[in-house]
Design goal:
This protein is mostly helical. It has helices at residues 2-19, 23-29, 34-42, 50-60, 64-70, 75-79, 90-137, 144-158, and strands spanning 187-190, 195-198. The longest helix has 48 residues, at 90-137.
């Protein structure tokens, strides 16, 4: 317990000092007592109030989720319930957005790599077609072995395009940042229009 709480105090103290503000200034901005800030940083407050942590997180641009974990709040406290506003900070929203931006960038890069492979495959097939047509025009024989070897080369080129996107590159998902949308029993969802429709209509 002491190790986790001490780590919480250390994270807060380092973030505060990095911004060049005193404990008194932090307490003023976070709307809390200065003595409470001192107790948290010293590791004497084992589990600070969520609202205090929220004020500290917003003032120091820290993740509320990270602070709650360091304060040993459990998964239910962090991720369950109707209202996540008090359990997520601006830094948590920024982290979620950054995760999606990185995924978007990785997906575009993945698509571009597949496009390059497609051009290589297209070139290989076009080259094989040209050889077959030229052989017909010149009334020459092109062996099945020669066609087979070229097709084997093309199939090797196409294999990377059959691979799925690496799951480790998928974006993280914080259900506290994007809580699930609840659809009541008396409504249905139109997947074409993307709208919720009342069954009584």
């Amino acid at each position: 317990m002491k190790k986790t709480t001490t780590e919480l105090g250390k994270v807060i103290a380092e973030a505060r000092e990095k911004l060049g503000i005193s404990q008194r200034e932090l307490s003023r901005r976070a709307n809390m007592d200065c003595a409470e800030v001192s107790r948290i940083e010293a590791g004497k407050r084992l589990k600070p109030n969520v609202l205090y942590l929220k004020g500290i997180a917003e003032t120091l641009n820290l993740s509320m989720v990270d602070l709650m974990k360091l304060a040993e709040y459990d998964d239910i406290d962090i991720n369950w319930g109707k209202d996540f506003i008090d359990r997520r900070s601006t830094a948590d929203y920024q982290r979620q957005i950054k995760s999606y931006e990185q995924f978007y960038s990785d997906a575009l890069e993945h698509i571009e790599e597949k496009r390059k492979v497609d051009f290589s495959v297209k070139g290989g097939i076009a080259d094989l077609i040209d050889k077959i047509e030229l052989a017909k025009i010149e009334k020459k024989e092109i062996s099945n072995d020669e066609i087979l070897e070229r097709l084997k080369e093309i199939i090797v080129l196409i294999r990377p395009n059959l691979e799925k996107l690496d799951k480790s590159k998928y974006p993280s998902f914080d259900k506290g940042v994007f809580p699930k949308m609840e659809i009541k029993n008396n409504v249905k969802y139109n997947f074409i229009s993307g709208k919720i429709i009342d069954k009584e209509e």
